[in-house]
């Protein structure tokens, strides 16, 4: 894994958090305990600050960044799908950000809110708690996140917390 200090800005990594060897974490970044950071993820706190809560999964090739002297905040038990981009935004607890979705500057994604695959949450846009946002730019669906969805996604989130425990011993590089 590539964890870098930048001009005195040092990442802080929580207990039982797994960071893949090809992921990059640099600068003023705080990652909570029990998180899973996938291959190719880039979490860059070079001139902004990144805060990531506990038990959050940042899947392959995600990019997380913040504007100068500003902050990106990601809560606890958040799932950020493959190749998503979170830039200078707030993503609250239990949110699900779909694959290749973008959450842009000063946007807020609420508790248990969902941003669908490929959706773009534009600057300063808000996805309220328990709502589902789809499209480019996003629009809210009429239906809310229900208990069945929460149960299913709680299970998926627990899988990644378990992977964070298993990867340090279970992942082996095989040389040709």
Features:
single chain; about 180 residues; mainly beta; UDP N-Acetylglucosamine Acyltransferase, domain 1; twelve-stranded parallel sheet; eight-stranded mixed sheet; 1 helix
Note down, in words, how this protein is organized.
It is a single chain. The two termini are 21 Å apart. This protein is globular. The strands form two sheets. Strands 1, 2, 4, 6, 8, 9, 11, 12, 14, 15, 17 and 18 form a twelve-stranded parallel β-sheet that branches. Strands 3-5-7-10-13-16-19-20 form an eight-stranded mixed β-sheet. The protein has 176 residues and is mostly beta strands. The protein has a single domain (2-170), classed as UDP N-Acetylglucosamine Acyltransferase, domain 1, CATH 2.160.10. The protein has one helix at 147-170; strands spanning 2-4, 12-13, 18-19, 24-31, 36-37, 42-52, 57-58, 63-65, 71-74, 79-80, 85-87, 90-91, 96-97, 102-103, 108-109, 114-115, 120-121, 126-127, 131-134, 139-144.
List the helices and strands and how they pair.
Layout (H helix, E strand, L loop, with lengths): L1 E3 L7 E2 L4 E2 L4 E8 L4 E2 L4 E11 L4 E2 L4 E3 L5 E4 L4 E2 L4 E3 L2 E2 L4 E2 L4 E2 L4 E2 L4 E2 L4 E2 L4 E2 L3 E4 L4 E6 L2 H24 L6
Parallel strand pairs: 1-4, 2-4, 3-5, 4-6, 5-7, 6-8, 6-9, 7-10, 8-11, 9-12, 10-13, 11-14, 12-15, 13-16, 14-17, 15-18, 16-19
Antiparallel strand pairs: 19-20
The fraction of residues assigned to DSSP E strands is: 35-45%
The assigned CATH architecture is 3 Solenoid
The tally of domains stands at 1
How would a crystallographer describe the biggest sheet? 12 strands, parallel
Listing every helix as H and every strand as E from the N terminus to the C terminus, the arrangement reads EEEEEEEEEEEEEEEEEEEEH
Mean pLDDT: 97
Low-confidence stretches: none
Distance between the termini: 21 Å
Helix percentage: 10-25%
Total E-strand runs: 20
Shape: globular
CATH fold-level label: UDP N-Acetylglucosamine Acyltransferase, domain 1
Radius of gyration: 15 Å
Name the structural class.
Answer: mainly beta
